[in-house]
Amino acid sequence: MAFRVKVSVCIILFLSFSSFFFSLGTAQGGFNYREALEKSILFFEGQRSGKLPPNQRVSWRGNSGLSDGSLAKVDLTGGYYDAGDNVKFNFPMAYTTTMLSWNTLEYGKRMGPQLQNARAAIRWATDYFLKCANAAPNKLFVGVGDPNADHKCWERPEDMDTVRSIYYVSPGSPGSDVAGEMAAALAAASLVFRTVDRVYAKKLLGNAVKVFRFAVQYRGSYSDSLGSAACPFYCSYSGYKDELYWGAAWLLRATNDISYLNFINTLGANDVPDLFSWDNKYAGAHVLMARRSVVGNDKRFDSFRQQAENFVCKILPNSPYTSTQYTKGGLIYKLPEENLQYVTSITSLLTTYAKYMASKKHTFNCGSLLVTEKTIRILAKRQVDYILGNNPMKMSYMVGYGTNYPRRVHHRGSSLPSMAMHPQSFGCDGGFQPYYYTANANPNILVGAIVGGPNQNDFFPDERTDYSHSEPATYINAAVVGPLAYFDSSKH
């Protein structure tokens, strides 16, 4: 788990649309999106915490974190490790769950047999969130495991011996950002399960309403309340207003209660950023709300459509309003650390908005540039294809996809021999030598994991110690599930 420190950057676009879009062959075929979709969802089984089910497919993983919550005399087992570490951070985990749910809602009919696996991946998180929301009165549990202690160790989740500290927000120590995101996750997931398990869906939605009410009533940032347990790992750099906005947008979609729209209008949040991530939700909320304008022709949502299109205008490389840098190889480049998280999140918004546009043959303009569904689709496909191997290094940034992919992923469980191969515990320091610092490939292949990705020069060193490029994360994968289903050649 790398520090997710964000910096303010103003980057000038230096490549024209034509110079990389057509020279790199966006029309190339050859990618098996269905295989990539299957693997992108399988990855989540490698990130599971808790007691693993009999149908667990990532066989080198075992049970872990079985006493999580015991320090507070509650059950907080389950959920996901966010990246290559053994900590459960609810802020990025909830965003991961919201994005998995959204992509499943939008593309479930295109997923075929992977729909059931996507639902299982979502439920692994929501079962845990239900525990977090109900384990104790006036407390919302938001994390397990001391990140500062954990990051000093290199050991498997199955035999970790670091303290499993418990973190929560409360009326006296608020966390509107993490609570707002958890509410969004529960509301979005309720829509996924509404047609297959109405009782569970109702339970999720009821808890989403309760958690969101908590977020609104007790306002404050969880970064301030939790201090070093949140920062610099998953600080809420953008504040909590975007999570209130995002949470309300999802509750509006799940309930149709117009009071959530009225609430959004009171926030006065008119930010139109040029990125979308686990920290900054505005662009995602705008696209989600724009659906009612584009698809539903509801004039009350026209302002959100305009904001969604302003966002797209900031991303498109030949737009007069672009503020997005691209590498020479054609990859969206936002920030040096874990750049592919921004690529997959932005691409998810692009494909979803293109889908809305296609349903009504909607177009719009970025200045003199006419933007059609195809305009956006070409850019989104370029990003997906780059990740799968159409890039200067001819490398797939999805582990286990293709033949040339990262072998030295910054991930404890992947880099250390499994319990079956090495039953003895490594202890806190035992994994560093010879497993962390070695140039050897990881003994366990974390199939489907998408790593942080190449640098601005399209170069990827494939070094385990270079966490900002070689570490996978749940939120990178959650966002790419939709685009992969969208571009599945047999469906699209």
UniProtKB/TrEMBL annotation:
Catalytic residues (UniProt): 410, 462, 471
Pfam families: Glyco_hydro_9
Record carries keyword Transit peptide: no
Entry keyword Hydrolase: yes
GO MF term (any one): cellulase activity
Catalytic activity: Endohydrolysis of (1->4)-beta-D-glucosidic linkages in cellulose, lichenin and cereal beta-D-glucans
GO BP annotations listed: cellulose catabolic process
EC nos: 3.2.1.4
Keywords noted in UniProt: Carbohydrate metabolism, Cellulose degradation, Glycosidase, Hydrolase, Polysaccharide degradation
Principal EC category: hydrolase
Family: Belongs to the glycosyl hydrolase 9 (cellulase E) family.
Protein known as: Endoglucanase
